[in-house]
TrEMBL record, chains A, B:
This is 3-dehydroquinate synthase. Catalyzes the conversion of 3-deoxy-D-arabino-heptulosonate 7-phosphate (DAHP) to dehydroquinate (DHQ). Keywords: Amino-acid biosynthesis, Aromatic amino acid biosynthesis, Cobalt, Cytoplasm, Lyase, Metal-binding, NAD, Nucleotide-binding, Zinc. It holds the Pfam family DHQS_C. Zn(2+) binds at residues 190, 253, 269. It is an enzyme of class 4 (lyase). PANTHER family: 3-DEHYDROQUINATE SYNTHASE. InterPro entries: Dehydroquinate_synthase, DHQ_synth_AroB, DHQ_synth_fam, DHQS/DOIS_N, DHQS_C. It is found in: Cytoplasm. GO terms for molecular function: 3-dehydroquinate synthase activity; metal ion binding; nucleotide binding. NAD(+) binds at residues 111-115, 135-136, 148. The lineage of its organism: Bacteria, Bacillati, Bacillota, Clostridia, Lachnospirales. Pathway: Metabolic intermediate biosynthesis; chorismate biosynthesis; chorismate from D-erythrose 4-phosphate and phosphoenolpyruvate: step 2/7. Residues 187-330 form the 3-dehydroquinate synthase C-terminal domain.
């Protein structure tokens, strides 16, 4: 018998910058010229059909102008493109065009594009660098921070993927102007979630400035983009691999994901989260963590953001309960919810312990007696 | 404009043990009981059709005996299984059987299985732990150390994958008994490569003990298994991500890979490497790094190991040259070869500089005047 110890202990620095601003296309290309990605000269731009003309093509043109080699790889817009098959197709197209280990990936679009492209970059040539140019509020608030990348499979969403940190993230606030309203609202749900779980100040700001944000007021948009980063960043920094603290980000999501699935994706993710935020607020009130007036404030803010706060009629409530209770997180017949405490805080039972056990009966009560 | 620095600097410890011994099936399961993988209780065993009955089924039985949940996922034996499609199929089968993030992967087989399973483990649920039970000499000598995992695509071998370190590697020397002779010889080529590049002592040992190894003498097999680990380990430890030093492991491989491809995989990888070792020795002699007698010793050892030392007749030599010179490593019309210096050392031009430029003319000379 022989035994070997392979010693592989080392310091890894995956730190990166997030830049928030108006129209950052030139800045991105300048950063590359200034050595952001070292000596890399070949760029695979990954984008979707909606984002192509408005953001990807202009960045491509700027890169080519500077004599970089670049190609655009386009996926059909929408969640359905976030698959292993799309990933393989892009890989094959990149190989065909001679991309090897000496390239970098630039993801231009929303969360679908950055999840897919970030995952692809992580396995291409066993990992090439990537940067993200985020064009949706949802990507700005959520997908662009934390290093989670993934694709969906027929049996699970976001289960096949990697933790893979970008080299830099660009949050283009100007891109929110071309974003369809419903997508903007959906992204706002995650912003409201951040406010509910971590910042009364942000909550108050949103109450006062929703119209400004929705009419693309520069200062207001910058304010929420910064705040979103700060809140998610603080959580992610402390818990890069989801050991516990990240759990708080699930505020509104346990219920939200269930209703999203039962709606068969008629609800956008943020819309489902909005209803989930209402549900957890009702639960928090039942448990004594929120006052009636706090709950009303949350609902009013979601309404102001043009987000749903009621369970749509087409949802089969029994199916919803069933979906919740077949969830992997059910233990001893109890679901575990993150609950809000007042406005801007969550219920916490000790270090990294955020889960309140909720029985089927309690949920049933909320669904049947609190929602219309 | 706002700017955020996401700070993600941390110490990562990917160290792991390699255990070399005779029949380590029980040891593996005991290690798991003793907490090698923490509290994990669900194991996805990945294996191939040849290895299933002899090694995977017995390990499965031992796990089930200890009340672990386990399932065997079987791929068709052979390089053709190392694809994204096979990976997807296993992922779907695992999802179907309820595997989520709380499982571990056990790869049982040769390099094909460990490359595929190690990659799969790295992206399943954004990464679950895996261990490798290596049943071929090639896996023992090469594939099990270094953390490289990958699959092949129609346009490139081993290009889509990850650096992903196992939690432990088991090298079962008894498994070499059931290994087909040709596979054993093929694995020996990598062992001889290690000797040529790094150890006169190992070289001498192989000269004296080849018959013993091939008749499964315990001490001799243990000796080479240990030596292989030591040599590859030393290189890998210093250069986990292939910045330079790992280059030395390419001894015999530049020529080897080209002839492997041109043979349309009639040559096994190790057989191709054997011919590549001869080619580099001829080049080294031409350049004055090896004596005629050293070259003869290398050839004699390869012959003793039942490995080819001549270019097979069916190989189109012009195609071979063409293949070499379309290689990605060609710079200014010159290929870059790692060359042996005497026996047990390589030519080195400074820290991490191992590449000797070789012109097409020089290769042509070797192919036409040195080989039969
Ligand atoms: N990685 C993470 O941590 C994380 C976090 C949250 C969500 N996500 C993922 O993000 C995805 C949802 O993100 P999303 O809402 O950005 O989805 P998305 O990328 O599909 O974008 C939404 C829609 O808006 C279009 N679009 C994007 N930018 C535009 C612009 N500036 N102008 C006009 N149209 C534009 C897109 O083409 C698409 O049709 C989901 O797949 C989700 O799983 C990931
Ligand atoms: N990751 C790395 O660093 C690395 C290094 C070298 C090679 N590789 C990869 O390893 C692969 C080659 O490895 P390999 O030669 O082990 O290939 P392999 O896994 O295909 O095994 C060779 C053959 O032997 C059979 N077999 C395996 N163990 C057996 C046993 N004990 N008894 C009877 N039959 C057995 C297999 O079914 C297969 O038919 C290639 O895909 C190569 O790319 C990877």
């Amino acid at each position: 018998m022989g035994k070997f110890k392979v010693e592989l202990k080392k310091v890894v620095d995956d730190s990166y910058d997030i830049l928030i601003g108006h129209n950052l296309k030139r800045t991105l290309v300048e950063d590359i010229s200034n050595g952001l990605l070292g000596k890399i000269k070949k760029f695979a731009i990954i984008t979707d059909t909606n984002v192509l003309d408005i953001y990807a093509q202009p960045i491509y043109d700027l890169l080519v102008e500077k004599n970089y080699k670049a190609d655009i790889f386009i996926v059909q817009a929408g969640e359905k493109s976030k698959t292993r098959e799309t990933k393989s197709k892009i890989e094959d197209a990149m190989l065909e065009k001679g991309y090897r280990r000496d390239c970098a990936v630039i993801a231009i679009g929303g969360g679908v594009v950055s999840d897919l492209a970030g995952f692809l970059a992580g396995t291409y040539g066993r990992g090439v660098p990537f940067i993200t140019y985020a064009t949706t509020l949802l990507a700005a608030a959520d997908a662009s921070i934390g290093g989670k990348t993934a694709v969906d499979t027929p049996l699970a969403t976001n289960l096949i993927g990697l933790f893979n940190q970008p080299k830099k993230v660009y949050i283009d606030l100007e891109a929110w102007k071309t974003l369809p309203d419903r997508q903007m609202y959906s992204g706002m749900a995650e912003t409201i979630k951040h406010a509910c779980m971590a910042s009364k100040e942000l909550f108050d700001f949103l109450q006062k400035n929703m119209e400004k944000i929705y009419s693309n007021d520069i200062t207001a948009c910058e304010y929420i983009a910064n705040y979103n980063c700060e809140i998610k960043y603080k959580v992610v920094m402390k818990d890069e691999r989801e050991s516990g603290l990240r759990e708080v980000l699930n505020l509104g999501h346990t219920f939200g994901r269930a209703i999203e699935t039962v709606s068969d994706y008629r609800l956008l993710h943020g819309e489902a989260v909005a209803i989930g935020l209402v549900a957890q607020a009702y639960l928090a009130k039942e448990k004594g963590y929120m006052t009636e007036s706090d709950v009303k404030k949350v609902i009013a803010l979601l309404k102001k953001a043009n987000l749903p706060t009621e369970i749509p009629e087409y949802i089969d409530r029994e199916k919803l309960i069933e979906k919740l209770y077949t969830d992997k997180k059910v233990r001893d017949g109890k679901l575990r919810f993150v609950l809000e405490k007042g406005i801007g805080d969550v219920v916490c039972f000790g270090e990294n312990l955020y889960a309140t056990p909720i029985s089927e009966e309690e949920i049933r009560n909320i669904i049947n007696n609190y929602f219309e």
